[in-house]
Write a structure and sequence with these properties.
By secondary structure, the chain is α+β, with helices and mostly antiparallel strands. The protein has 5 helices and 17 strands. α1 runs parallel beside α4.
Length: 397
C-alpha cells in the first residue's frame, strides 16, 4: 500500500529578530525582539535617505557652480552696462561735435559763396547683401566723406537691452539674456557687415574664468559681447579723436578764410572814380610846361563834383589840406595797404571814421596844384608807393 505523505510547507522568513545584550559579568542578559517588517522598513528608509543625501549633495554642488556663474554674469552685465553708458556719452559728444563741424562747414561755405552739399544717400538699412533682412542698427554719422572707419551699433546697445543681473528675479540665468550685443566694425578695406576680430578682455579672476571655461566654450555670447564692446569702445574713441582733429582743422581753415576775406577787403580794388586817365604812374612831362617829374599816382579826370569812393575797407587817417595835393583824404586799410585821394573839392568823411569799399569819401575837384578837375590816386604798400594800375585792374573775389 502506498502511504500518503503530507506536503511540506515552505519555510517562511523570520517573523522577528532578537537582539541580545550579554554582559561580561553575571548580570542579567537583556534581549529585545524586533519585528522583521520593522527592520525591512528601516532598511528601506535608510536607503531612501542615502539616495536623497546623494541627490542633495549633487544639487548643492551644481548650485555652487551656478552661483559662481551667476556672480560672473552679473559682474559682466554691470561692466557691459557701464561700457554702454560710456559709449552713449561718447556718441553724444561725437554728435555735438558733428553739429559744430556742420556749423563750421556752413560758415566756410557762406564765406566762400559755395553751394550746400547735396545730402548723401547711404545703403538701405535693414537690408543685407543678397536681400536678407538684418537687425536694425544705429549708424554713427561720419565726420567727413573721407573719414576712416564706419561704426554701426546694434539696437541691443539701448538701455533696455542690458539690465543688471541683481535686478532680475532669482533662479538660473540664461546667458543669452545678458547683453547679447551685435557689433559691426567696418574698417578700411572691408565691407560693412563683416565683423573684425579684436583682442579678448583681460579677466581679473583667472580661477573663475578657468572654472567657467566649459560654459564659455558651450555658449560664448557673453565673452564675445564683451570683446565686441571693447572693440566698439576703441573705435568710438578713435572717431572721437578724429572728429576733434577735424574740428581743429576746420577751425583753422575758418580762421584762414576770415583772414583771406579781411585781406581781400583791405586790398585796393577797382577805380576810385569814373573818368579818363590823364596821367599814369612814373616819370612824365610836367603838366605845368617845364621839365619832367616822377608822378607817384594815377590821375583820373571827370566832371567837377564827380563822387570819389574808397577802393577798400579801412579807417580814415587824414582829412585836410596837403600842399600841392590840395584837399586830401588818406585811408589806412590794414595789411600794409594805404590809399591817398587828392585834389578833392569836398571831403565827405572825418578822421577816425570807418569806411567800406565803394563808400563815397569826397567829390572830385581841382584844389592845390592842378590844371583841372581830377582825382590824384596813390597806393602805398608797406610804406612804399607802388603803381595803382594793377590794383585798379584787380577783380573782386
Amino acid at each position: 500500500m502506498k502511504t500518503l505523505s503530507r506536503p511540506r510547507k515552505k519555510a517562511k522568513g523570520p517573523r522577528h529578530f532578537t537582539l541580545m545584550v550579554v554582559p561580561h559579568s553575571r548580570d542579567k542578559i537583556w534581549s529585545i525582539r524586533v519585528p522583521a517588517s520593522l527592520v525591512k522598513a528601516l532598511s528601506i528608509l535608510l536607503l531612501l535617505a542615502m539616495v536623497a543625501l546623494g541627490s542633495f549633495t549633487y544639487a548643492y554642488h551644481n548650485l555652487l557652480q551656478n552661483m559662481d556663474e551667476l556672480r560672473y554674469l552679473r559682474a559682466t552685465s554691470r561692466e557691459q552696462k557701464d561700457q554702454i553708458d560710456n559709449l552713449k556719452k561718447e556718441t553724444s559728444n561725437i554728435q555735438e561735435k558733428l553739429i559744430i563741424l556742420d556749423q563750421l562747414d556752413a560758415q566756410i561755405r557762406a564765406k566762400l559763396n559755395l553751394p550746400k552739399p547735396a545730402p548723401s544717400r547711404g545703403p538701405e538699412s535693414g537690408r543685407a547683401q543678397g536681400g536678407e533682412q538684418t537687425s536694425s542698427t544705429t549708424t554713427l554719422p561720419k565726420p567727413s566723406p573721407g573719414s576712416q572707419g564706419e561704426v554701426r551699433i546694434a539696437s541691443a546697445l539701448l538701455p533696455s537691452a542690458v539690465e543688471p543681473a541683481d535686478k532680475q528675479g532669482p533662479g538660473p540665468t540664461n546667458p543669452s539674456t545678458t547683453a547679447d550685443v551685435d557689433v559691426e566694425v567696418a574698417q578700411p578695406g572691408t565691407s560693412p557687415g563683416v565683423a573684425t576680430t579684436s583682442p579678448p578682455l583681460a579677466r581679473n579672476d583667472y580661477a573663475t574664468a578657468r572654472r567657467l571655461a566649459p560654459v564659455s566654450r558651450s555658449d560664448g555670447r557673453t565673452a564675445r559681447s564683451s570683446q565686441e564692446l571693447a572693440a566698439l569702445g576703441a573705435t568710438v574713441a578713435s572717431l572721437h579723436e578724429e572728429v576733434k582733429e577735424k574740428q581743429e582743422v576746420l577751425t583753422q581753415l575758418s580762421q584762414a578764410v576770415d583772414q583771406k576775406i579781411a585781406k581781400d577787403a583791405a586790398t585796393p580794388t577797382g577805380w576810385p572814380a569814373r573818368g579818363e586817365i590823364t596821367s599814369t604812374f612814373g616819370y612824365r612831362r610836367s603838366p605845368f610846361g617845364w621839365g619832367s617829374d616822377f608822378h607817384p599816382a594815377i590821375d583820373i579826370a571827370a566832371a567837377w563834383g564827380t563822387p570819389v569812393a574808397a577802393t577798400a575797407n579801412g579807417i580814415v587817417r587824414y582829412v585836410g589840406w596837403k600842399g600841392g595835393l590840395g584837399r586830401t583824404v588818406i585811408l589806412e586799410h590794414g595789411y600794409g595797404f594805404t590809399t591817398l585821394y587828392g585834389h578833392l573839392t569836398q571831403a565827405t568823411v572825418k578822421a577816425g571814421q570807418k569806411v567800406q569799399r565803394g563808400q563815397v569819401i569826397g567829390l572830385m575837384g581841382s584844389t592845390g596844384l592842378s590844371t583841372g578837375p581830377h582825382v590824384h590816386y596813390e597806393v602805398w604798400v608797406a610804406g612804399k608807393q607802388v603803381d595803382p594800375w594793377p590794383y585798379m585792374q584787380r577783380k573782386l573775389p
